[in-house]
């Protein structure tokens, strides 16, 4: 490449970068939640928890949580879900017992305690909420066939 071409390209690169930056700054991006990232929105305005059990939409869907879990601690030291739902306490607390699959290790061996692979409940289970969809959804529940 000759020197004048290289000089021209070197001069063009900053212009293109600045033009691209200006274009990116002028683009209007709308958020799914309808507010700026740093804007605090009370949860009550986003959704309301639904009491009682909701019907599952498909086979093998993890059950939804029919109560608030806002203050529940679930970390490597504590899992407050187990204070009611572990098989040793569920009867006296009138809570559903965990499925026996939660007491199987990855090799299928039965354990006396919840398996580490099932310890963090909110990986699969979420609170039920009457929340508007963020995107259009055409999912249809299975017919049971």
Automatic annotation (TrEMBL):
GO terms for molecular function: metal ion binding. Residues 1-24 form the signal peptide. Heme c 1 binds at residues 67, 81, 84-85. GO terms for biological process: anaerobic respiration. The keyword Thylakoid does not apply. Its main location: periplasm. GO terms for cellular component: periplasmic space. Keywords: Electron transport, Heme, Iron, Metal-binding, Periplasm, Signal, Transport. The keyword Heme applies. Electron transfer subunit of the periplasmic nitrate reductase complex NapAB. Receives electrons from the membrane-anchored tetraheme c-type NapC protein and transfers these to NapA subunit, thus allowing electron flow between membrane and periplasm. Essential for periplasmic nitrate reduction with nitrate as the terminal electron acceptor. This is Periplasmic nitrate reductase, electron transfer subunit.
């Amino acid at each position: 490449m000759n020197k004048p071409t290289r000089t021209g390209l070197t001069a063009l690169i900053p212009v293109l970068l600045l033009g691209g930056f200006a274009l990116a700054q002028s683009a209007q991006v709308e958020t799914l939640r309808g507010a700026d990232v740093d804007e605090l929105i009370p949860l009550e305005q986003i959704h309301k928890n639904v009491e009682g059990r909701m019907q599952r939409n498909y086979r093998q869907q993890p059950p939804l949580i029919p109560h608030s879990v806002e203050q529940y601690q679930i970390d490597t030291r504590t899992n407050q879900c187990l204070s009611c739902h572990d098989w040793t306490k569920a009867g006296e607390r009138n809570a559903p017992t965990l499925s026996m699959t939660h007491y199987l290790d990855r090799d299928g061996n039965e354990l006396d305690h919840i398996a580490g692979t099932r310890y963090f409940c909110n990986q699969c289970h979420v609170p039920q909420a009457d929340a508007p969809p963020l995107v259009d959804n055409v999912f249809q529940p299975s017919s049971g066939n």
